[in-house]
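Predicting holo structure, zinc ion bound.
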Amino acid sequence: MNNRTCVHCEDTFNLDSQLKRSVGGKINECPDCVIELQTEIKETIRAVSSGDGKMACIQILKFQNEDDAELYRKGWDQWSGWNNQRSGSVHDVAFTKVGENSGNGNHKGKS
Ligand SMILES: [Zn+2]
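Done. Tokens:
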């Protein structure tokens, strides 16, 4: 464990966690803030919501550049969300899934 305190939200995060390594950012920024504030500029991180409300979850995806992210976003908007309905849009975009927050997941934070 290599705990740090985030300069943005003052939350404690593990610098050595897989998520933190994936999203990048500075050593004093938690992964959530890196994604939210988009402080990591080397690669493009996008949070995409999926699901149909009740089971909505956020997928955190990493793209190689801004164009790919936009392409994915556009494809996603047109996409109905069914895996078997391959229109060839979003599947053509190269991306890495770096994280996922399910709607009923344990939201981090201090009480
Ligand atoms: Zn933070």
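The chain has three helices and five strands.
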